[in-house]
Every structure is written in C-alpha cells, then in structure tokens.
Amino acid sequence: MSDKVVRVAELFAGVGGFRLGLEGSPESPDNTKYKVVFSNQWEPSTKAQHASQVYEARWGSEGHTNMDIAEVPTAAIPDHDLLVGGFPCQDYSVATTLKNSKGLIGKKGVLWWQIHRILTEKEVKPDFLLFENVDRLLNSPAKQRGRDFALILKSLNDLGYAVEWRILNAADYGMPQRRRRVFFMGYRQGTQLYEALQQCDKSDWLEEQGVLATAFPCRIKSTSATSWKASLSLFPEKPALKSFSIAEDLVTISETFNTGGGATPFENAGVMVEGEVYTAKTQPLYDGPAVLLRDVLQNGEVTEEYFIPEEDLGKWEYLKGGKNEVRKSKEGFEYRYSEGGMVFPDNLEAPSRTIITGEGGKAPSRFKHVVRTDRGLRRLTPVELERLNMFPDNHTHLEGMSDVRRAFFMGNALVVGVVERLGAALYERINQQ
C-alpha cells in the first residue's frame, strides 16, 4: 500500500470528526493520505437527521448513508483499508448464538455487534481499525468490571486482529479541552504492524514502537515493588506489565468475566495479540505549547444573547456552588444532598473542561461553561465550542440549525487533533511495509 491513498469507512460519523482528522478540512482537504469512501450516520432518537445534514453539507452525499447501520448490507460497504468510528458505550453482553450463523448476536441495538457483523461478513477485511469510546468502557459494567472491553478484544482476536489501546486526554498534549477518551487500534494478521506487535517487547511497544506511542509519547508508571536488580543503576529494570489470557469463547466471557466484582484488569494502556493481554498504567510525556480556554474566545464578536442577565446570576452561582442540604424526594422522603463547588467562572488560563451535550441554551446549568470578559459573564458560542474540539469555525452552521443543536454536536464529538496525530503516525507505519 506504500504511498497510496488509504481508503476509509467511517461509521457513526456524527458531523465528521474522524474525517476531518484524516482528510483535513473539506475547504482545503489533504487527500494524499486518506480518503473516506463510505460513511454512515443515523440518529435513532430524532426524526430530523441533523448531524447527517451537516455531514452532507460539508462533503456531499456520495458514499454517505443516513440509515440504521443494522439495515445497511455489508455488500453495500465498499472495500476499505481502515475502518473508523466512535460507537456508543452500551451493554455489550452476548445474548445468544445462532446455529446457522457465522457469528454471535449481542443485545438488540448494541452497535458494537454491527461492527462485528461487518468485519465478519467482509470478504476483504480492512487491514486497520481505529475506534474511540468513553474511558469507562474499560471499567464496565459495574458488576463485571472490564467485561465489555474483554468482549471487544476477544471478538477482534477471533477476527484475526491484534489491538493496542490508550486512554488519551487531549489536554495532556497541548490541545484546548480536557477530554478523556479511549482510542484503540487494530492490525489484521498478515500486516507488518501485526507481526511487529506479535514479536516485540510489549513494554517497548507501549512506550516507543506502537502507533499510539509514536503519536502520543508516554512512559509506563513504575510499580512500588522493586527487585534487587532495579536498585542498581547499571541494571535498570523495565516496569512489569500485567498480563492475562482471554481464551474463552464470547458467551463464556459474557457470563463469567470478573464476576467476583473486583477492579477491572485493564489499565489505561495495553495491547492484545493472539488472545494474550498486556496492560500497564502510563503517564503522558509532553512539554510543548498548550492551547488554553482564553485562546479560543471570540472576544468582540459575541452577541448579547450569550451574556448572563444580572437577574439570573444567583441561579448560576447556586448551581455551580457547593451544597450540603436536605432535599425531599417525590415520594416525600427527606435525604441529605451534597456536592462540591465548581470553578465559576471557568479558568481562562487552562484547557477547558469537557464539553457536554447539554452545553447549549440560556438556562442556568451546573455544567455549562461560563467565562468572564470585559463585557461581563457569558456562555460559550457554537464557534468556541467547535474550536475546543479543533473543528473549523462554523463547521456545524447551517440555515435553521439551532445553537442548542450545534452545542449538542460538540458534546458528542471527538477532538479532531487527536485523530490527526493518530492518522499521521499510522500512515507513516503503513508506508514502512
């Protein structure tokens, strides 16, 4: 594949964060490396498909589908080299098997099993995978911590992929938002990356050799336990990785993984190859420039509607403040409610807090961002929210698209700069094959 365009299929596309990170802006695209040949975006909870409308407005309708991915035949998805997507965090348990089926069926509506279905049915499977999810994926569900991620790893292993993962906080690498997400990458058996991961020292992969380590340098945290050799500077010892097997079938993992209720066995970074998992706690290595909340503000351009009226200030202060008070439930039972205070207004000299889907609208809220300017306290604009996710200004602006909806998009989106760096590191490794 050396020096060829990498063909991409983008699932759960939203307003196109993965595509922006890989191809570049549609106004000035860099299509010499990646090209999206298929995309799908479907929002089951709304009649109007707002995110898909934005996606088509930016890239056109060619190769794009706006329908439930479960209704898209695998044959309708063109062959591709890289499959990407930020799928929802759900209950991934396996419900049953089918005697006359190639695969396993998870609970209805769980979108991971649509990825599994596509990878199972594709005659020419993609060489590479890149997925994103909330970091609690490694810790879910509460009664079997780590089971959901174990099911994902095992299903990819059965399909012939090795996997590496890391929980990345975009702000740890100079980006403008503190947004923690788990990114995991798959390499199909027979590729150079699969063979390299199979043969390497797994600590070296996590710290130096892996695609994630190339894009986002890190160091494995040393454990408190040391041996006599580690105390001698001439013989430094590598930090030990936790390792275990996920050799059981998917149904057994679903029913029995970590049923004792202990902590998840998955640390914030790791690899899986041939059913063997190696995992460790890592810390970021970065000393470059940082983009702060103040750097994204549209000072002088913001209309009056974003400013907090004096009469509403008390509501904002109450919601943002600490509480230790007696409340009453709908059934009439009294209980004590407590929560800590939040910084109010938000600190302009640091990366922003995580954007949430409820960021838009004028109503006072504990979680919406509020900044102090020369003109007073105000909420963030849609363009500022886009900048916090490193989207182009007004990427989500369409005639009739409300500011509340645009804020919702950004609460669901990823930080484009993370995908840019992962895409660059992956492309470099692909061209070493």
What do you see in this structure?
There is one protein chain. It is built from twelve helices and 18 strands. It has 433 residues and is α+β, with helices and mostly antiparallel strands. It folds into two domains: 6-287 and 415-430, 3-Layer(aba) Sandwich (Rossmann fold), CATH 3.40.50; 293-389, DNA Methylase, Chain A, domain 2 (Alpha-Beta Complex). The strands form five sheets. It has a ten-stranded mixed sheet with strand order 3-2-1-4-7-9-8-12-13-11, sandwiched between helices. A two-stranded antiparallel ribbon has the order 5-6. Helix 1 packs across helix 12 (416-430).
Provide a compact summary of the structure.
The protein is α+β, with helices and mostly antiparallel strands. The protein has helices spanning 17-23, 50-59, 112-121, 147-158, 192-199, 202-209, 211-215, 250-256, 313-320, 382-388, 403-412, 416-430, and strands spanning 6-11, 34-40, 64-65, 82-85, 94-97, 104-106, 128-134, 161-169, 180-188, 218-220, 242-245, 269-273, 276-280, 282-284, 323-328, 334-339, 370-373, 376-379. The chain has two domains: 6-287 and 415-430, Rossmann fold, CATH 3.40.50; 293-389, DNA Methylase, Chain A, domain 2, CATH 3.90.120.
